[in-house]
Amino acid sequence: MPSSNNQSIRPSLRWPHLRGRWNPLWLYPVLVVLLYILWSGYLTLADKWFLFAQYWPASVTMVLGSFVAGATAGGGGAVAFPVFTKVLQITSADARTFSLMIQAFGMGMASVFILSRRIPILPGVVLFVSLGGVVGHVLGTFWLIIPGSYPKILFTFIATAFGIVLYISTYVIKWRPLFRMPEWNLHRKWAFLAVGIFGGIFSAQVGSGIDMLTFMVLTLAFGIDEKVSTPTTVIIMAINSWVGFFLHGVVIRDIGEMWNYWLVAVQIVIIGAPLGAYVVSRIHRHTVINFLMVLIALELVTTLVLIPIRTWTEIGVTTAALSVFGILFWILLHYRHEHLPADELR
User: Fold this and answer.
1) Cα gap 31→47, rounded to integer Å
2) Whole-number Cα distances in Å, 63 to 106, 117, 239, 255, 264
């Protein structure tokens, strides 16, 4: 029988007054059936089935992309963005918009799956990062626009620096992971609000980023178990994707041809992303870390191949970013060592 202490450190969601009336486990499959009816009905009534003949690469791409979206903190955009920009020759702006559109449904359905199955998450982190993410996404969409290929290059090398530090933290230092925030005080709420603003700016540029940045802070500074931090960031990215979807679909109205790509892929992601979330909930945390390491390595290789760094300015900016964030990640580890109780580090 589990101890009360173990029960207290593993967060869960409660569904009061629902037993005998409605099983929340039915929520996800019911929504899947409803979405499939609406999707297939629209394609039939609008005579759009022919879109698969031209836009099928989007369907194939999102088979892997949706699984990655639900299983890691990288988001589906980590797969869609490089494939769309370099393989399919789609502009980075359109690839970004597609990533947000498809994640809104894929990671949105993964969020429904996570919540309905009461997979452990950190609700306070979701709230404050998402609030900051709204602000950051608006800023990144209309004002703080990073030029050229810099957003993707910077994000890739930041993720690479994180991967190195995460490996050292997990396999060299071997600190014990936690299942909850050690203390949820005002300073930490402001810190995660800032993480959301910064991450929202990145997501507005390349279609993902707020999830990975949140994951970095959770795992390095607070030692949160990857099986808790991953579903937490999936929900955060889903919310931020809906913000981006609204801005581009309702405010700016610049989606254009991306609707066609979305129509041939959405039926895949509402299955693939929840599947990824389910797999992560069932495997060992080291498997989650190793899978993320592989994804980061692929991200680095594809970025170097597909977005070559040619100018001295790009080399300088990349080197500076790698150095600064490498140091920042070590500062996060130091914060963890200094501010977490000693018995929670062993």
Assistant:
1) 24
2) 11, 23, 21, 22, 11
The pTM of the full predicted model, rounded to 2 decimals, is: 0.86
Please check whether residue 17 lies inside any domain of the structure: no
Report the chain (346 residues): mean pLDDT per 10 consecutive residues.
43 50 85 97 96 94 90 77 80 89 95 94 97 97 80 75 78 81 90 96 89 90 90 96 96 94 96 93 86 83 76 79 80 79 53
Q: What pLDDT, in 10s, does the model give residues 296-346?
A: 888 788 777 777 777 787 788 778 877 887 788 888 888 887 776 654 555
Cβ contacts of 12 within 8 Å, gap of 6 or more = 118, 120
Residues constituting the chain: 346
Q: Does a structural domain hold residue 41?
A: no
Domain membership of residue 306 (yes or no) is yes
Structural domain count of the chain = 1
CB neighbours of residue 106 within 10 Å:
32
- For residue 320 the two structure tokens come to 């500076």
In a domain, 229, yes or no: yes
Q: How far apart are CA 195 and CA 267, in angstroms?
A: 32
HSE of 68, CA atoms in CB hemisphere, 13 A: 25
Longest dimension (CA), the chain: 66
Q: What is the number of alpha carbons within 13 Å of residue 297 lying toward its C-beta?
A: 8
Q: CA 3 to CA 8: how far, in whole Å? A: 9
Based on its alpha-carbon atoms, the radius of gyration of the chain, rounded to whole angstroms, reads 20
Domain of residue 126, residue span: 22-34+53-344
pLDDT digits (tens, 9 = 90+) for 175-186: 788 888 888 899
d(CA 109, CA 58) in angstroms, rounded, equals 19
- Write the CB contacts of 183 (distance below 8 Å, at least 6 apart in sequence): none
